[in-house]
Automatic annotation (TrEMBL):
Ranges for domain Alpha-D-phosphohexomutase C-terminal: 370-441
Listed GO MF terms: intramolecular phosphotransferase activity; metal ion binding
Names of the cofactor(s): Mg(2+)
PANTHER family (UniProt xref): PHOSPHOMANNOMUTASE (PTHR43771)
Organism phylogeny: Bacteria, Bacillati, Actinomycetota, Actinomycetes, Streptosporangiales
Protein name per Swiss-Prot or TrEMBL: Phosphomannomutase/phosphoglucomutase
InterPro entries: A-D-PHexomutase_a/b/a-I, A-D-PHexomutase_a/b/a-I/II/III, A-D-PHexomutase_a/b/a-II, A-D-PHexomutase_a/b/a-III, A-D-PHexomutase_C, A-D-PHexomutase_C_sf, Alpha-D-phosphohexomutase_SF
Record GO biological process: carbohydrate metabolic process
Membership in a protein family: Belongs to the phosphohexose mutase family.
Transmembrane regions listed in the UniProt entry: none
Signal peptide start and end residues: none
NCBIfam families for this protein: PRK09542.1 (NF007088)
Keywords: Isomerase, Magnesium, Metal-binding, Phosphoprotein
Domain Alpha-D-phosphohexomutase alpha/beta/alpha, chain residue ranges per copy: 6-130, 152-251, 259-365
């Protein structure tokens, strides 16, 4: 057994198998999950990692030992688990380590209706109770049924975004040997889409590249395939397929901020005057475009717990993050990369222009992307940056330090898990963005020397 305090994070469970997360631990978490949530039934799904089926089976044993009945959905993406939790009205657990390397695994937990469980909403209590239950065995008394939810998931998504009438599209999808290889064919079946699959074989060792589309090197194969096949666009999913990155017909990355604005406009057409959530790293263009289309933009801290909490508080129809997570009120306020991809396909397929032209209307500023710097004294680096920009812009310390000037802004915030400072900068022209970015990085670099 590993140290539960180490593998229980703010929003989920994540650790190296078996050193930090093993089957006895998973079994104890299953029992603790039922005790803490009071669940009479639980739905469980898992990704394609070699360790996922045995860990899920151990969790199920633990849950059944506390008289809970289990619906075992088997292989699924994280948003399929959210669909299961929402449609069945059951608490759920997904076994995945998302984009982490093969040796990792973990659990994402939610209450009925896909309501997330985090450190301040039950995860800490589950951790503490599980620590007491490790090694305690009991005879399973709850029932278990296996239920294939893939077709229901695919049908539900197609009711939210109708793609049946779009023009024929050629789409390259890089599943990264992750769960997109399982879910994409089911969702696209019968649609006017010519699918060009890349790395659809389910393989938790990730033999081709990491299933993390935020890293540019993991997009190279997809970009080449889009150009070689003359495709209309490319889609890259992470390991558990809850994030989606978009490549246009030229092989160029489309900013998640542009995707957020595009989807927001489509949602506002259905829900005039609605609220749209965006985190503080998304482009200034997002709130501008939301207002122009009659919506109400609301800015939050980075992180899915903040996005989901604000969506629930405000009744927002949609929320987007710079990390390619997209949240939908019609999907139980949960995130679905697949649903965001379908909105992009609909926007493209309902007219004749190429994707690069479609998204150009939503790309108003030049962004640095996230630049990480290793800094031992983060507080000192932030102090020096604050001092250097004291008379040059407005300060906001909601999440790290955000400085906003005339036609530019940057955010510098500490990582929650590593000795890093993360910088995002944006400006109306590229030269100004570069100057701001480099000035901040120079100050930070002097502290880390």
């Amino acid at each position: 057994m590993g140290d539960l305090a180490k593998i229980f994070k703010a929003y989920d469970v994540r650790g190296v198998v078996p050193d930090e997360l093993d089957e006895p631990t998973a079994e104890a978490v299953g029992a603790a999950f039922v005790e803490v949530t009071g669940a009479q039934s639980v739905v469980v799904a898992h990704d394609m990692r070699e360790s996922s089926p045995p860990l899920a089976a151990a969790f199920i044993r633990g849950a059944r030992s506390r008289r809970a009945d289990v619906v075992h959905a088997g292989l699924g993406s994280t948003d399929l688990l959210y669909y299961a939790s929402g449609s069945l009205g059951l608490p759920g657990v997904m076994f995945t380590a998302s984009h982490n390397p093969a040796r990792y695994n973990g659990m994402k937990m939610c209450r009925a209706g896909a309501v997330p469980i985090g450190g301040d909403t039950g995860l800490t209590e589950i951790r503490d109770r599980a620590a007491e239950l490790v090694g305690v065995t009991a005879t399973p008394s709850g029932s278990m049924i296996e239920k294939d939810l893939l077709s229901g998931y695919a049908h539900h998504l197609r009711t939210l975004v109708d793609l049946s009438g779009v023009r024929p599209l050629k789409v390259v999808v890089d599943a990264g040997n992750g769960m997109g290889g399982h879910t994409v064919p089911a969702v696209f079946e019968g649609l006017p889409i010519e699918l060009v699959p890349l790395y659809f074989e389910l393989d938790g060792s990730f033999p081709n590249h990491e299933a993390n589309p935020l890293e540019p090197q993991n997009l190279v194969d997809l970009q080449r395939a889009v150009l070689d096949s003359g495709a209309d666009l490319g889609l890259a999913f992470d390991g558990d397929a809850d994030r989606c990155w978009v490549i246009d017909e030229r092989g160029e990355s489309v900013s998640p901020s542009a995707i957020t604005a595009l989807v927001a406009v489509r949602e506002l057409a259905k829900h005039p005057g609605a609220t749209i959530i965006h985190n503080l790293i998304t482009s200034l263009g997002v709130p501008e475009i939301v207002r122009e289309h009659g919506g109400v933009p609301v800015r939050t801290r980075v992180g899915h717990s903040f996005i989901k909490a604000e969506m629930a508080r405000t009744g927002a129809v949609f929320g987007g993050e710079h990390s390619a997570h997209y949240y939908f009120r019609d999907f139980w306020f949960a995130d679905s990369g697949m649903l965001a991809a379908m909105h992009v396909l609909a926007a493209l397929g309902e007219q004749d222009r190429p994707l690069s032209q479609v998204v150009s209307a939503y790309s108003r500023y030049h962004a640095s992307g996230e630049v990480n710097s290793a800094v031992s004294d983060q507080a000192e680096a932030l102090r020096r940056v604050r001092e250097a920009f004291a008379a040059r812009g407005e300060f906001d310390e909601t999440d790290g330090l955000t400085v906003t000037g005339q036609g530019w802004w940057f955010n510098l915030r500490p990582s929650n898990t590593e000795p890093l400072l993360r910088l995002n900068a944006e400006a109306a022209d590229e030269a100004k963005m570069t100057a701001i970015r480099d000035e901040v990085l120079t100050i930070v670099g002097k502290v880390s020397e």
